[in-house]
């Protein structure tokens, strides 16, 4: 289990992610957002929409774990979701708004959880793992930062940064 201080830092990261992500892509044109760095890799537009999709799923999993005894969550095919039209066509601002509102709610939820609640868990059949909410907090704090770095790497490799 994380200490209260460690959790506070992870929650601060969850709170900061929306602004950090928006700042990372703020000056990008549609052509830059749609640039695919390699076959089979996502463009920045897909990455932004993926963060919204992934974190919405994670938020729901948090709520399920808080309200049910070790629920089994439904995995989803993130690559299939990234290929759907809403991940390829709509402006990233739509997902940035979702991420902003979602993270505001999620941070408040995290801040008010007890140690007993952080110990609650869900079962993920795709990974075969039981995930505590304490571990989920750390995982999703890192998840967002990893995708910001993925987008920043595209910019560096293309000389846009």
Summary tags:
161 residues; mainly alpha; Four Helix Bundle (Hemerythrin (Met), subunit A); two-stranded antiparallel sheet; 8 helices; 5% strand; globular
General description of the model:
The chain is mainly α and 161 residues long. It has one domain (4-158): Up-down Bundle (Four Helix Bundle (Hemerythrin (Met), subunit A)). The chain is built from eight helices and two strands; from the N terminus they run αααααααββα. It has helices at residues 4-25, 30-33, 44-67, 78-83, 85-88, 92-111, 115-118, 133-158, and strands spanning 121-124, 129-132. Strands 1-2 form a two-stranded antiparallel ribbon. α1 runs antiparallel to α6 and α3 (44-67) packs antiparallel against α8. The longest helix has 26 residues, at 133-158. The mean pLDDT is 96.
């Amino acid at each position: 289990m994380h200490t209260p201080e460690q959790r506070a830092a992870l929650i601060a990261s969850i709170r900061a992610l929306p602004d950090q992500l928006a700042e990372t892509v703020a000056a990008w044109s549609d052509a830059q957002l749609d640039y695919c760095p390699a076959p089979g890799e996502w463009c920045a537009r897909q990455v932004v929409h993926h963060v919204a999709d992934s974190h919405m799923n994670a938020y729901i999993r948090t709520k399920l774990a808080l309200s049910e005894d070790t629920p089994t969550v439904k995995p989803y095919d993130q690559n299939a979701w990234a290929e759907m039209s809403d991940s390829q066509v709509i402006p990233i601002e739509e997902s940035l708004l979702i991420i902003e509102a979602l993270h505001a709610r999620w941070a408040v939820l995290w801040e008010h959880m007890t140690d007993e609640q952080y110990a609650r868990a869900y079962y993920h059949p795709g990974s075969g793992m039981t995930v505590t909410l304490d571990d989920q907090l750390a995982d999703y704090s890192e998840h967002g930062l990893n995708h910001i770095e993925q987008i920043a790497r595209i910019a560096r490799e293309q000389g846009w940064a």
